[in-house]
Amino acid sequence: MSKQSKASDPRELREQVQKGYAEVAKGGSGCCSGSIDKQERSESLGYSREDLAALPAAANLGAGCGNPTAAAEIQVGETVLDLGSGAGIDCFLAAKKVGPRGKVIGVDMTEAMLAKARQNAEQVGAENVEFRQGIIEELPVESGTVDLILSNCVINLSPEKGRVFAEAHRVLKPGGRMLISDIVLEKLLPEELTDDLGAHLGCLAGATLKEHYLRLVKDAGFTGVEVLSEMPFESDGDGPNGLADKLCCGADADDVPRAISLKLRAVKSR
């Protein structure tokens, strides 16, 4: 993707992200993905072959940066909310764990993604899964109704991350928890990368420093904020990152900014 100036207005930037991920829904590559086999990439992120085999192939976009469902300890009967649910991979995995007495809600702003996810739900007969259109800064979910929030490599795309975490806190029940995988930075990125829309769609230019990210979670009212794991951000070199591949994932790792894929858990106090 050629270099473009990144939109400065949050609404305009969301529109650009929405357009980019509409293309992903139609078969393009998305966040952290490129020419690498989607099955192979998903297994490397912690999804088991058994779980992937039970899903419709179209649900796995190979677009995440972790598997938040693996560490979420999802319980039967819970209500689970997935922020930026895409084609539905984490929703369908959660739906099996909550069972027919539970419920899974996926929120996504891209119509093409929602259409794809609903087709996948029909294919697997997931009657306890519902997909809603909306932005994660203004969730179409009632306050205090959710036991668990999941999100996989999506919040970095938001230009208003503080609002995302505030909304997550609002919709959780007291004692509810949040389990997310996302991209954060260990060092600031150069301006030529932060201004690149392609790098933003590739889940890098919109990322913020790790310390700032954790502070936003705590400022939203969450307690027990814990980093469960982190690993270097990696690209196969043929994805949408373009400039990001050269500046962040090159051989001279000690001399360039570095991003990490982080898995985080937080709780809403009772």
Structure commentary:
The chain is an alpha/beta fold and 270 residues long. The chain has a single domain (10-185, 208-231, 261-268), classed as Vaccinia Virus protein VP39 (Rossmann fold), CATH 3.40.50. The chain is 33% helix and 21% strand. It contains ten helices and seven strands. It has helices spanning 10-25, 38-44, 49-53, 89-98, 111-124, 161-171, 191-194, 197-201, 210-219, 243-248; strands at 79-83, 103-108, 129-133, 146-152, 172-185, 222-232, 259-268. The protein has a seven-stranded mixed β-sheet, sandwiched between helices.
Tags for this entry?
270 residues, Rossmann fold, seven-stranded mixed β-sheet, 7 strands, 21% strand, disordered N terminus
Low-confidence stretches: 1-5, 236-244, 249-253
Return the domain count: 1
Q: Considering the protein shown, what is the CATH homologous superfamily?
A: Vaccinia Virus protein VP39
Number of strands: 7
The whole-angstrom Rg is 17 Å
Distance between the termini: 46 Å
Helix segment tally: 10
Given helix and strand content, the structural type is alpha/beta
The major beta sheet can be summarized as: 7 strands, mixed
**Gross CATH architecture:** 3-Layer(aba) Sandwich
Pattern of helices and strands: HHHEHEHEEHEHHHEHE
Question: What's the overall average pLDDT, rounded?
Answer: 85
Question: How much helicity do the residues have?
Answer: 25-40%
Overall form: globular
In order across it, which strands form the biggest sheet? 3-2-1-4-5-7-6
In CATH, the topology is named Rossmann fold
Sheet-strand content, in percent, reads 15-25%
CATH class annotation: Alpha Beta
